[in-house]
Design a protein that fits this description.
Blueprint: H1 23-35, H2 47-53, H3 58-63, H4 75-83, H5 102-111, H6 117-126, H7 143-153, H8 172-186, E1 190-198, H9 200-214, H10 223-237, E2 243-245, E3 250-252, E4 258-260, E5 262-264, E6 267-269, E7 272-273, H11 281-297, H12 302-305, E8 312-316, E9 335-348, E10 354-367, H13 373-388
Parallel strand pairs: 4-8, 8-9
Antiparallel strand pairs: 1-10, 2-3, 4-7, 5-6, 9-10
Length: about 400
């Protein structure tokens, strides 16, 4: 009677079917017995149940959410997956009924389908979703794969049940913004004043900047840069607005740490430019541009995003055509300036004739616990004066 004496194949491939009759089945039963849970836990465990049977790391917990909660996995395999940073989403079980067993996890480790240490730390810290496999040559899941998987998870899922709406889960940044804004309105006495400043000189400066940039000028100074420069000059005159309300005291800052609201793909961020009063207009423009780019790339330091980092914030919605809005204070700061779009309005010209002039809207929200209406209005008027008296000499550098 002919029998198989050897099998040629790749490392890790199963060869049970080639064993002499009877041996394969017996060996398989032995392996299955070794993989089986203890008698008191003979019931098949789902991945979710396995994660509850021991202290589960966030890697395994997030890997089994949603659809993955129905994946069947043995406790030993679940423990090994956590230790080896293996995402079980892409693991195919070879146990009874497709159950994932220890050798499946070992095979995933050999194939490289696991999280990098940096990806694991980032996932645990930021709560990012784990994709089935990475895009690197060895299928390792990197931090970039986690970010992309998280962005995809936040996209609305089309309704397939005929419901007239779609529920979209909040992303991490959106949750932070929502909690911060709600806490701000709950815990402060906010009031907003609106004022307009003649933007003629500012627009003329912008034309000069555009021309100089074409000639090789290094600083593409924007209207927002000019507004921020004017705000800094006004804050130097009114330090009461450059402060934090501490509950039983008001902390006035000697330096101006300017917060800038930045709309990013991940949500609203407000990084702070420390010691903004150190810079000339061109220098301020360069620093604000760098700060904005870092926020949009996601490389900004978390310390600069803390509400306590800035002493005053500017939020500009002028590019969106907003004519008036009520910005919400970024506590514990005592005030925030909202910048609106430019609108042409009738006004008396310098020669005494009547015509139309460009006006930029300014909306100052302040905490009435720290500032009274009179001082707040005077401060807002100082910003208006600084904008209306901008000089082209500030561009020279």
């Amino acid at each position: 009677m002919l029998q198989n004496t050897a099998v040629v194949g790749k490392e890790g491939e199963s060869f049970e079917e080639f064993r002499p009759e009877g041996r394969g089945a017996e060996t398989a039963k032995t392996e299955e017995k070794n993989e089986a849970p203890a008698p008191e836990a003979e019931k098949e465990t789902t991945a979710e149940e396995a994660s509850l049977s021991e202290k589960v790391s966030p890697v395994e917990q997030r890997s089994v959410e949603g659809e993955e909660s129905r994946i069947r996995i043995s406790p030993r395999a679940g423990k090994l997956a956590r230790e080896k940073r293996v995402s079980i989403r892409s693991v195919t079980g070879s146990g009874p009924g497709g159950r994932i067993i220890e050798r499946d996890i070992l095979e995933a480790v050999r194939s490289g389908n696991r999280l990098t240490p940096l990806a694991q730390r980032k996932m645990e810290k930021e709560g990012l979703a784990v994709p089935g496999e990475g895009r690197s040559p060895h299928k390792r899941i990197t931090s970039r794969d986690l970010l992309e998987a998280g962005a995809a998870a936040e996209k609305p899922v089309p309704s397939v049940s005929g419901e007239p709406y779609t529920d979209t889960p909040l992303g991490k940044i959106r949750k932070i913004v929502a909690e911060g804004m709600f806490r701000s309105l709950q815990n402060s006495a906010q009031l907003t004043h609106h004022l307009s400043a003649n933007a003629s000189k500012m627009l003329q400066m912008r034309k000069i900047v555009k021309q100089k940039v074409e000639e090789g000028y290094s600083y593409n100074i924007t209207l927002n840069d000019m507004v921020c420069y004017s705000v800094i000059r006004a804050l130097q005159q009114f330090p009461d607005a450059n402060a934090h309300f501490m509950g039983d005291s008001i902390r006035k800052f000697h330096r101006i740490n300017l917060g800038i609201a930045v709309d990013t793909e991940r949500g609203l961020m407000v990084p702070a430019l420390l010691h903004a009063d150190d810079y000339s207009l061109p220098g301020l423009s360069s620093q604000l541009r760098a700060l904005t780019e870092e926020a949009r790339k996601g490389s900004i330091s978390p310390d600069l995003l803390a509400p306590e980092a800035a002493s005053f914030t500017v939020s500009n919605l002028g590019n969106y055509g907003v004519e008036m809005f009520t910005p919400v204070i970024n506590l514990p700061q005592v005030a925030i300036l909202g910048v609106n779009t430019i609108i042409h309005r009738p006004a008396i010209l310098e020669d005494g004739n009547f015509g139309f002039q460009p006006f930029i809207g300014l909306s100052l929200t302040y905490d009435h616990r720290a500032l009274d209406g009179g001082p707040a209005t005077i401060f807002l008027a100082a910003i208006k004066t600084e904008i209306e008296n901008l000089s082209a000499d500030l561009i020279a550098e």
